Amino acid sequence: MSDVLHWRNLHLGAGVVDACQVGRGQHVRLVLESVSQVQFMDRMLTLPEDGSGDWPMWLESGAGRFQAGTQEFVERIGIMIRHRGLMANLTMRENLLLPFLYQGDKDRLEEAFDEVGDVADFVGLTALLHEQAGERSAYTHALVSLGRCLLARPDIIVAQEVHIGMSPERLAHFRELSVQALQRLGSGLVYVTSSMNEGSGVIFSRTLTVQPEAGKLSGGEE
């Protein structure tokens, strides 16, 4: 199978996340306390300080094998972090396009620019596209993060508790949008959360849960 996120046993705090792989179309829930969530996300975005290249997370893609923390890896992984979707001084359109501005790929930026209107319509941000972001709700932050994933079409999406803090009505709508987006993209999903009752509305094929007495995490099929 191509386009698969792999990790070997990851030591996070006092516990261990068992080795796992997540391919396109597969949805895995990873239950971690807040500190370990940060450590897990850091594993994805940071290379070893010693430059050894021996990092226990990587992506097997049709284009090759990419180690976590490299530009090639990050460009193929969609990141959705709670309350981290927006830069207040930019318009909504600029916020949606922000990852492509940093990549330095002119052709990919132009492609995203052509698609941003359709994506904004899908997630319900069309009326706000030309407004400065400023202070927005958790719901709007999540919509921007989801919109970026729709534009980037990542192999795997890693989402960190993006559903927390929404009103019941907004939560129900975002659940529906999220499921539709996953079907549209066909991406794999790792949902990082502190609760088994995270409220995402996603059906998970596997959950990695904490076992405090052993200090380890073990996988179980649902």
Would you write up a description of this structure?
This protein is α/β, with parallel strands linked by helices. It is built from six helices and twelve strands. The strands form three sheets. It has a six-stranded mixed β-sheet. It has a four-stranded antiparallel β-sheet with strand order 4-1-6-7.
Shape: globular
How would you characterize the largest beta sheet? 6 strands, mixed
Number of strands: 12
By oligomeric state, this entry counts as: single chain
Rg, Cα atoms, Å: 17 Å
Spatial order of strands in the largest sheet: 8-9-10-5-11-12
Average residue-wise pLDDT: 85
Q: Which consecutive residue ranges, at least 5 long each, have pLDDT under 50?
A: 211-216
The end-to-end span amounts to: 22 Å
Overall structural class, as computed from helix and strand content, comes to alpha/beta
H-E string: EEEEEHEEHEHHHEHEEE
Put simply, the count of helices is 6
**Secondary structure: helix percent:** 25-40%
What share of the residues does DSSP label as strand, in percent? 25-35%
Concise overview:
The protein is α/β, with parallel strands linked by helices and 222 residues long. Helices cover 36% and strands 25% of the residues.
Protein topology:
Layout: E1 4-7, E2 10-12, E3 15-17, E4 20-23, E5 27-31, H1 34-45, E6 57-61, E7 64-67, H2 71-76, E8 77-81, H3 92-103, H4 106-123, H5 138-152, E9 156-160, H6 168-185, E10 188-193, E11 206-211, E12 216-221
Parallel strand pairs: 5-10, 5-11, 8-9, 9-10
Antiparallel strand pairs: 1-4, 1-6, 2-3, 6-7, 11-12
